[in-house]
Each structure stands twice: as structure tokens, then as C-alpha cells.
Specification:
mainly alpha, 5 helices, 0% strand, 148 residues
Length: 148
């Protein structure tokens, strides 16, 4: 009886150990947002596209705007969800309040889009044909990677 109990404990311990090691080594539990900081993107772009100083400055401008908008949206996340939660808790939804709230968000998004596209177009105009081809090749490679 004691031998069976010892074997069960050993087996259970071994099972827990193997499962733990499997979870630790499994790629699906890793953070997939590895090094997506603006510095990393800038370094990779400079290396891949061989950007000159003017191009680097213009790309940095685009990346800085994107990072500031992302930070702003993270800070406003709670403010954005509060009216929605309040309305969901009530018996009747206040459509005018929600529409106004979404209109404000859409206005900010539209202004960001116009600003970032203008700055990106300015950067893109400085690229050579060879740099544009490299950029297109990189984007196609990324599309293939994310489709599979």
C-alpha cells in the first residue's frame, strides 16, 4: 500500500514538473510584442533602408507622433470606457451622450490620421526608388509571416 502511495506521489510530482517545464518553454506564452519600441523600429529602418540624416529625422518625427498618440490613448482608456459602463448599468442607454463621446474620439483619430499621413508622405518623398523597393519587400515579407 505504501509503495503505491509513493509511486502516485512520484508520478504526480513528475507530471507537475513536466507540465511546468512545458509551459515555461512554450512559445505561445511569450510576450509577442518583442522590441516594438520606436527606438528599435528606427534602428531597424536605418539599417534595412540605409537612411540618410534627413530621412532619419523625418521618420523619427513620424514615430514620435505615433508614440505620443499611443500614450495619449492609453491614458484616455479609462475615460473612454467610463460613459459606456455607466450607460450599460442604467435601464436606458443615453444615446446622445454615447454618440457625443464617440464623435470626440473619432475627431481625435481623424486629426491624428491626417497629421501622421502628411508627415509620412513627407518622409516617403525623400526615399529613393531602391529604398521604396526594400520597404515594399519588407512589408510583403511581414504579410506572409502573419498570414501563416
Amino acid at each position: 500500500m505504501k509503495k503505491i502511495s509513493i509511486n502516485k506521489r512520484t508520478g504526480l510530482t513528475l507530471l507537475i514538473l513536466v507540465t511546468s517545464l512545458g509551459l515555461v518553454s512554450c512559445n505561445s506564452h511569450r510576450d509577442r510584442h518583442h522590441n516594438r519600441s520606436t527606438d528599435h523600429i528606427m534602428q531597424k529602418s536605418v539599417k534595412q533602408l540605409d537612411l540618410n540624416a534627413e530621412q532619419q529625422t523625418k521618420l523619427q518625427d513620424v514615430l514620435d507622433d505615433m508614440e505620443s498618440f499611443k500614450s495619449k490613448m492609453k491614458l484616455q482608456h479609462a475615460d473612454f470606457s467610463t460613459p459606456l459602463k455607466e450607460n450599460l448599468s442604467k435601464s436606458e442607454i443615453n444615446l446622445s451622450q454615447l454618440n457625443e463621446h464617440f464623435d470626440d474620439f473619432e475627431l481625435e483619430l481623424r486629426q491624428f490620421r491626417q497629421s501622421i499621413l502628411t508627415k509620412y508622405a513627407d518622409f516617403h518623398a525623400t526615399l529613393t526608388d531602391e529604398q521604396r523597393e526594400k520597404l515594399l519587400g519588407f512589408l510583403e515579407k511581414m504579410e506572409k509571416r502573419h498570414k501563416s
